[in-house]
Design goal:
The chain is an alpha/beta fold and about 220 residues long. It is built from nine helices and eleven strands. The strands form two sheets. The protein has a six-stranded parallel sheet with strand order 3-2-1-4-5-6, sandwiched between helices. β5, α5 and β6 (about 115) form a beta-alpha-beta unit. The longest helix has 13 residues, at about 75-90. The protein is elongated. The two termini are about 30 Å apart.
């Protein structure tokens, strides 16, 4: 289990936090809107109402203890200020949402590790999904690694994770297996694939691309 800090709970921040939490990770969210925090408190590990660009708040959280911090703040000035503070406080990895190219350039200059454009990246993910019968979604974690969600291939139905040697054969890790009514986080080797299961894997982009041809 990894730990993530999500700053800002707009649509993008909420989606990011929910996805990480559903994958079994420790997630702390921060937003200045107390109503949103109250609504979200049961969906993640911890939820704090406060201004994400407040240095004292970030210090009290201990940002350097998290595996990654996601800056999902809509206001450009607050986003940049928060990124500066995170770098000064020793954040291990910072992913930030950008509103435009200039915003992205400034974030990279500050030292942000990864900058994404939600609308543009959504288009890329949709294109990946529509080009393959099985792929439901692809979420990029870094330039080299992504999380991919896909419908279990027919050739996998009735077989177990261990029997297929998924990690050895394909070089990816299965982080979750979703049925119509259950989410199995980090399924065991003896877990058997059933028709219409949704598989969530994490790995190198090159390995995930190779998996898209499995039928």
């Amino acid at each position: 289990m990894r730990s993530y800090l999500v700053l800002g709970l707009g649509r993008f921040g909420q989606s990011f936090a929910r996805t990480l939490s559903s994958l079994g990770h420790d997630v702390l969210v921060v937003d200045k809107n107390e109503n949103i925090i109250q609504q979200f408190s049961n969906e993640v590990t911890h939820a704090i109402a406060g201004e994400a660009s407040n240095e004292e708040l970030l210090k009290s959280i201990g940002v350097k203890n998290y595996d990654a911090t996601i800056v999902a703040i809509g206001d450009i000035q607050s986003s940049i200020l928060t990124a500066v503070l995170l770098k000064e406080l020793g954040s291990k990895y910072i992913l930030a949402k950008a509103s435009n190219e200039l915003h992205a350039k400034v974030l990279y200059k500050i030292g942000v590790d990864k900058v994404i454009f939600p609308e543009r990246d959504m288009g890329i993910r949709a294109a990946n999904s529509i080009s393959s019968n099985n792929i439901i979604d692809i979420f990029e974690l870094s330039p080299e690694y992504s999380i991919m969600e896909f419908t279990v291939p027919l050739s996998w139905v009735g077989k177990t994770i261990g029997g297929l040697a998924v990690r050895t054969k394909y070089g990816v890790s299965i982080v979750a297996l979703r049925t119509s009514d259950y989410l199995n986080i980090l399924p065991q080797a003896d877990t058997k694939f059933k028709e219409n299961d949704i598989v969530v894997v994490m790995g190198k982009n090159s390995d995930l691309k190779a998996m898209q041809s499995i039928k």
